[in-house]
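Entry
Fold in token form

___
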Amino acid sequence: MTGPGAVGIGARLARWLVDRWVFGVGLLVLGYLLLPVAVVAGLSFNRPSSRLSYDFNEFTLDNWRQPCATSEMCDAVLRSVQIGFLATAGATIFGTLMAFALVRHRFRGRSAVNLLIFLPMATPELVMGSSLLTLFVAGAVPLGFWTVVTAHVMFCLSFVVVTVKARLAGMDTRLEEAAMDLYASEWQTFRLVTLPLVLPGIVAAALLAFSLSFDDFIVTNFNSGTTVTFPMYVWGAAQRGIPPQVNVIGTAMFAVALLVVLGGTVGRRRGQISPRSRA
């Protein structure tokens, strides 16, 4: 097809591509980021030809039917989940309190504290892990489950503070002032106004802290003693063949995280729409 019509179609197509090139690049980057996840999900349905082989050999559901075929792996997963929950709880509580103090109060040394908060995020994990090991050994603290929890709380704390601080900095304080002008007490203002506004940031910080704790290997390897977490199990199993159930655990963790994020997004949109519908 040639002529003015073809030229018009070509011009419209070129204009459409120019207007949406950012969207196309975003889709390509997203696909690149999700490609490893897709490979792991595919390998979770694979029966490898040998223990040291990672090729797609045969489709099977046995890996999902028997995720704990290797008992040591499930013990390591449970231990990582326990450490993750404890580290998340500790880091979220202390980090939220620190964020409120840094945003809402002026005190001597505040700028120095803000600077020190970023140091654990910028410090290489190798340095942090070895430093914590030196601290525990010098204090005659036996290495094990609780030293891992302590180490995870320490490096997750900075991420929680930064995340909650960003939420607090963007919050309109006039809403709190209006609540107190309407004779709400400080506790009522915090419970009914401040906390609901800050809660998305706290939840995001908690999810980030759990992901960092569950995924950590270097700091854990320095301070775990005889405690074996899921990343340490995978590292050890790689020398003799990783069981396919590892891919099941990875896919399940990604699915749970995706459901949590989607659930939070849907809940937030419903909360934004419901007042309009009532109006």
Remarks:
- The mean pLDDT is 84.
- The chain has twelve helices and no strands.
